[in-house]
Design brief:
The protein starts with 7 loop residues before the first helix and ends in a 27-residue tail after the last helix. The chain is of the alpha+beta class. About 30% of the residues lie in helices and about 20% in strands. It has a domain at about 65-245: Alpha-D-Glucose-1,6-Bisphosphate, Chain A, domain 4, CATH 3.30.530.20. Strand 3 and strand 4 (about 155-160) form a beta hairpin. Strands 1-6-5-4-3-2 form a six-stranded antiparallel sheet, with helices on one face.
Length: about 300
């Protein structure tokens, strides 16, 4: 039996399956889907990303350090509630820096792989305005402590030339491409001995046209990931079970009280409270430890 002959269009190369749309008439679905995704991200996702954990009122509030970047074009406000009063949170913030206690975030990314400090180090507590905190290992770039008001406000400021990442003086001539930013930590006391930590970033990049897409697509999501990690690690470090009152009182020895009036009384109140609670189930620090349980005896086969 001879097979049925193919249509003549097959031999000419114009044969196509039934229902198939010719390539020239295919609708432009990819650009439309991309535009729709961009609109949804700009309207629904990005506003929540820029104020992760913060209320609308907190995001719209004016905070110290907002005016340090003239003509700022970007701003984020993220927040977390920590289970300790501000005077117990402040020492951890005061010792931040690659050359100090780290940044309490993803250490492989922002601290050269060196683990961030898990204890308070007294020699890192005397932080003053104008001090430099290394932002990268080796000290090639740094933050400058612009506002230091313990235990309420810490604002870090940086100016970097691009693409070298070398700091420059904002009072002098600016390079052709640069970025300037503020990273502020604002502590508010809450009932129950807790702290509301607001983190505000304000920035400006030049030239705007090539830098704006990079900031929106990469810079903002990266900051969200790093900041949430820092919140988590700070919460673990200030938990009552991990913070001894002796560490807070030891921090008092290195606080320049004359430079920051009022910090002495606030630190004493929190330090005495933490020391009386201790680390053993809310008992005073001088109370004896609970008795050890009966030592475990290994199981043996019964004698025959």
């Amino acid at each position: 039996m001879n097979p049925a002959p193919f249509p003549s269009s097959c031999s000419s190369g114009s044969f196509r399956a039934p229902g198939r749309v010719p390539p020239g008439t295919r609708p432009a679905r990819l650009p439309v889907a991309g535009a729709a995704a961009a609109v949804l991200y700009a309207v629904l996702v990005r506003p929540r990303l820029l104020r992760c954990g913060a209320t609308r009122e907190e995001a719209g509030r004016a905070l110290p350090g907002d005016g340090l970047v003239p003509g700022a074009r970007s701003r984020t406000t993220m927040a977390a509630t920590l289970p300790a009063p501000p005077v117990r949170v402040w020492p951890w913030l005061a010792q931040m820096g690659c050359d100090r206690g780290g940044w309490y975030s993803w250490d492989r990314l922002d601290n050269g792989g060196r683990p961030s400090a898990r204890t308070l180090v007294p020699r890192w507590q005397d932080l003053a305005e104008g001090d430099r905190l290394h932002s990268v290992p080796g000290g090639r770039a740094w933050f400058t402590a612009a506002v230091v008001d313990p235990p309420r406000t810490l604002v870090l400021h940086t100016c970097l030339s691009l693409p070298s990442g070398v700091p420059f003086d904002p009072a002098g001539p600016r390079p052709r491409a640069w970025t300037e930013g503020v990273w502020g930590f604002h502590l508010e006391p809450l009932p129950g001995g807790r702290t509301r930590l607001l983190v505000r970033t304000v920035g400006r990049d030049e030239p705007r046209l090539p830098m704006r897409p990079v900031s929106v697509l990469f810079g903002e999501p990266a900051h969200l990931v790093m900041q949430r990690r820092q919140f988590r690690n700070l919460r673990a470090r200030v938990e009552p079970a991990r913070t001894d009152g002796a560490a807070v009182l030891g921090y008092l020895r290195y606080v320049p009280v004359g430079r920051h009036p009022g910090v002495l009384a606030r630190t004493l109140r929190a330090g005495v409270g933490a020391r009386t609670k201790g680390l053993y189930g809310g008992q005073p620090a001088h109370a004896p430890r609970p008795p050890c349980p009966t030592p475990h005896r290994p199981w043996r086969w019964p004698a025959p």
